[in-house]
Every structure is written in structure tokens, then in C-alpha cells.
Amino acid sequence: MSLPFVLLLALVAPTAAQAAAPERPYIVVYDRTTPAAAKATTADIVADEDIDTTQRFGTAVQGFAAKLSSSEVAELRDDPRVAAVTRDIPMQATGLVPVAGADSVPTGIRRTGAAVNASVRETSSANVAVIDTGIELGHPDLNAVAGKDCTGSGTTNDGNGHGTHVAGTIGARNNGSGVVGVVPGTKLWAVRVLGSNGSGSMSSVICGIDWVTSTRKDTNTANDIAVANLSLGGGAAPNDDCGRTVGDAMHMAICNGVAAGVTFVVAAGNSDADLANAAPANYPEVLTVTSVADADGLPGGTGGRLACSGEADDNPASYSNYATRAADIAHVIAAPGSCINSTWIGRGYRAISGTSMASPHVAGLAALCIGDGATRGPCFGKTPAQVVGILRKAASDQSAAAPSSGFLGDPTRPLTGRTYGYLANTRFSAASTPAPAPATAPVNTAKPVISGAPSVGAALTATTGTWTGAAPITYGLEWQRCTTAAATSCSTIAGATTVSYTPVAADQGRLLRVRVTARNTRGTVVVVSDPTAAVAARVVPAGPPVLRSTPTISGTPRPGARLTANPGTWDGTTPMTFTYYWAICRPGSNVCSWAGATGATFQVPNVPAGTRFVFVMIAQNRYGAVMAQSMVSGLSGLSSETPRVVGLPPAATRS
């Protein structure tokens, strides 16, 4: 524990880097806890570290978002309650191309089969969330209600237009004016995670997913969100195991939302690139939608070129991302996304383009598959994975029944190196439900791996490995210290149960490995990683002393007893010397006076009951001197309070 700021300044002037240590946005996720425990943990950590959170999560994931310094990040990563600390990356609505025009039944609604000639579908019984820039709640063509604001604006109303446009494609009313959606009049929940400029952060998106998931777990069944549309994304590499191995908090949140029963429909992105590097489009648990240019709402490719973009009818949109990896091909589907006319802010309408416009067509189809008016659809009561399977099977069934119904670039007429999926359609039926995969115990296909050079004080990171088996699979991880490569020589390191571990002095010369336990309803399987090389000694850079652990006092503080100074742990260039100045804290006072004693031990004088003791120490090497203060010792034990020490000799304030 350091002395008051003014005294420290007299010893070591902070460097420019220390004085202006930048804070950056991070997401902190806890390690396997309950929502109630998560809230308590957040309160504890916030108090301990003096952190101001920007978001707090307690359903889809447990944790918080905040701006943190590098030292706070390091401390949180060492906290056994914390599973991951990752950067909070920017997220934005997928790009828009404004155009002119209007249509009471937009081409995309006709092309997906949601409207035929003058007939449209009925309102779905499913609740649909639009996780976006919000929705204009007063738009007369929308049945929109306030859900959750995660931007700090204080409203779920749309200040951009993007979310309102998405909402209209899903559920614009069949009211004789404006446009109609896939499921006209369906209740749409506004979840605002992006600002009026169409951008936001991953933590805001997680906040929205967290709220949507909470509707499935509260006592109000009327607000249960069944389908959520995310026409947004950011750059992120693909990962397995629901993001646990790399600490992807948004992936964890999506997986927990899916487990709660939410079907997530996501835009593929508008970079004309492989969607493998776009999140959440690259998450295998979502239904990812690519975009098709459709000029007339009809198959056959006879609609010419779209007036807004010049793209050819029944071709993949020029901007649309696509799949190349088998893992991504398994969850993509296509829908019209160019020159889509829909609702806009100001009670208006506008035609724009993007995979953001393709995605809500499929979100509407998912809601339609759950309920068409008073009729339950084939997706009713199904898991999100089954809903995704039904929608993709319906698309491939339509292509098989009418080969000309597709587009150039679908699996019947593929483009080299690019997969856009089959065109979404309403051909779903109970027969389209894919057969469930046989339930099996976890099977390890790639064992855990430890990354990093093993040395005392240098953090290592481990994966949980790659697994197959009946979902959901949960994982437990333990770090072990070994004397040889033989498993019988290993012992578990207490408290080391997260993917990160920093070797301590006791590990020097030993080997380290991780032991992973995978569990599902069918069984439990344990695997271990290969051991690391022997842990090397700490590499200490040349420089002044650096305090690593707080000095303490041992001994019983009674008159006549002898107390001993424990200097704590220091890094820095050796040799290093320590000087101690003992102080006495009178009962009830937070000001302690120097007792005139120096040295590593101190004999307690005859003092009143309730007196406490503390020492100030100086650690010095050839690069400089640093002062630190011990924990306070009293009959009730050690305390981490920071009393003010007065009366120190001049030597204690010189470097």
C-alpha cells in the first residue's frame, strides 16, 4: 500500500507514460457463476478497483463493460472470478445505399413468398426484437414497442432510420398505405444498441442480447422474444466453442440466448468478402443472410437491372459477403437486399440496399414459421437450431421443386469460391424439420493447447480444445504443476481455473499443463494438454524497484512482543536494499506517528489497547528509490487501510 501522493512524488517522479496511462474500453466476463453472484461480483470489483462501468450484464453473460487501464486489465485477468477480459470493439449497421421509389408490396416480400399478388400474410404470434438503431415507435405503419436502450440516450426511438427500415421489412402493417412486411402488424421490440450515426460498441450489442435473453427467463411470458434480427456487425476472426477459448463475450451471449430459445438472424455484411471475418455473421449458432439483387419480385432473371444500383436481376448483390468455410456454409441463406422499400423515420418511407435489408426478410420468415395469424407454424415449439434447419431446408426444397426460382450464385448455379446459400422462401413444413443428431457424450477432436513462453511472471493462455457431442457442453479448466512429463507427477494449482495463468516462483523449474473436463447430459470426458517446457526464472528488466505484493507485518502486537517486517515482493535490478520506519497508530486515529525505530524488527512498547502498527519502507537500487507502506497490524489482524504517517526523518523523503 503506497503512502499519500505528495510523499510519493518526493521519491520517484512518475514517467510521462505512467502519468498519462490511457484507458481503453474492455468487456469483462465472469467464470461460471449465477446472475445473482455476478451482480455481487461486479459490485465487489467496481469497489475494489474504483471502476465506472458502462454496461452490466447478468443473463446472456455475466460481467460488465468499462474503460480500463493496462494495470486494471492485468489485475482483472489475474482475478479467479474472471474468465476473460477482451477489447470492446466498434460495431455498426451494415452499409446503406439510399435510393428513391415506393411500393405497397416491396419486391423482397413478394420474392420470398410472403405476399402473392394482392394477398399478404397475417400477423405472427411471435415477438420479434430489432437489435439496431432503435425503431420509430410512433410510425403509423409499425406495431413497435420499447424494449431496451443500451446506448445511454434514454430512448429506444430511432435517430438514424436503419432500425425503422429493418422493422418495416419484418412487420409493416397491412393498413392500406405505405408498405407491408413479411408478417404485417407483428409486435416489434425496439432494442437500441447503435447510435444515431449507425455505430456503437460490442458491449452495447451484448447489452441488447442480454436483455432479449432475459425476456425468456422472467415471469412474463407475454414478452418472450422468439426471433431477434441483428443487421449489424464488426470485424472479428471466427472462433469455436461459443467464444470461450478466445474470450469472445458477444459469442458467449449469442450462445446463451440461443440456449434460452431465441433464434438470431444476422446480416452477412457488405464488404464483398468472406464472412469468416465478420461477427456475429461468422457464429455458427445464427442464421446468416446474404443479399440478392431482385428487380421485380419474380424468379427467372427477366427483371433487367435495378434502377438504384445497376445490378442485374437474380444475381448476388455486388456488395454482399459470402461463405467459403464449411462451418459458415452450414448456416447461410439468401434474401433480396437491394433497393428495398420500407418504413423510415419521420413517418416516412425509403428504399435502401444492404445485407441489413436482406436479413429482416428472413427474420420475418422465422416469425411466420412460428405462427401465421392464429395458426401455429411448423417452427412453433422448436429450438433455434431446428428453426434454422427448417428455414434452410425450405429454401433448398423450393429450389429442388422449381429450379428456376433461385439465382445465379445459389448452390444449383455456384460461383467459384463463393457460397451465398439458397433463396429463402415460405415452403417450410413439419417435414422440413431436420432429423436431430444422435445425442453423444463429449468427444475431443483437438486437445487443449497452452500458448506463451513459460517463465515466472509471464502470462500463459490455454484453450479448452475442440469438441463434438450433444449441446450444450460445459467446460471446466484446471492448471497443473508437474515435476516430469508423467501425469502422476502433476498436482492441481489452487484457484487456477481460467484460461489465463501467470507462473509464480513455486513454478520455476516445473512443467505446466491444463486439465479440461467437458460435460453434457450424456457424459463427462477429461483431457489434458501437452506439458510446457520448464518454467524459467523471472526476467527482470533493468530499472528502479517495482512493488509486486504489499508489505505485511508478522507477530502479535502486544506490549513487549517483537514484530517483524515482511517487505513483500519486488522486481528491479539487484542488489536491492530495504530500510524500515516503524509508526504507531493511536486508538481511533488514522494518523500514525514515527516511533523513532528502524530495522526489520520492532519491539512493541507499553501502549493502550487498540493501538495499531505500520511501517514505511524504502526499496533502493542503483536506479532509484521507491517508498511503500505496509498493511496495518492490530489485535484484530491485518488491515489494508491507508493511514497517514507523520514525523518521518528527512532521510525517509529523499530518493
From TrEMBL:
Domain of life: Bacteria
Annotated InterPro entries: Peptidase_S8/S53_dom, Peptidase_S8/S53_dom_sf, Peptidase_S8_Asp-AS, Peptidase_S8_His-AS, Peptidase_S8_Ser-AS, Peptidase_S8_subtilisin-like, Peptidase_S8_subtilisin-rel, S8pro/Inhibitor_I9
Residues of the Peptidase S8/S53 domain: 127-398
Transmembrane segments: none
Keyword vocabulary terms for this entry: Hydrolase, Protease, Serine protease, Signal
Active site residues according to the UniProt entry: D132, H162, S356
Keyword Protease: yes
Residue stretches making up the Inhibitor I9 domain: 54-92
Gene3D superfamilies referenced in this protein's UniProt entry, alphabetically: 2.60.40.2700, Peptidase S8 propeptide/proteinase inhibitor I9, Peptidase S8/S53 domain
N-terminal signal peptide: 1-19
Pfam families documented for this protein: Inhibitor_I9, Peptidase_S8
UniProt record similarity statement: Belongs to the peptidase S8 family.
PANTHER family reported in the protein's UniProt record: CEREVISIN-RELATED, PEPTIDASE S8
Protein name in UniProt: S8 family serine peptidase
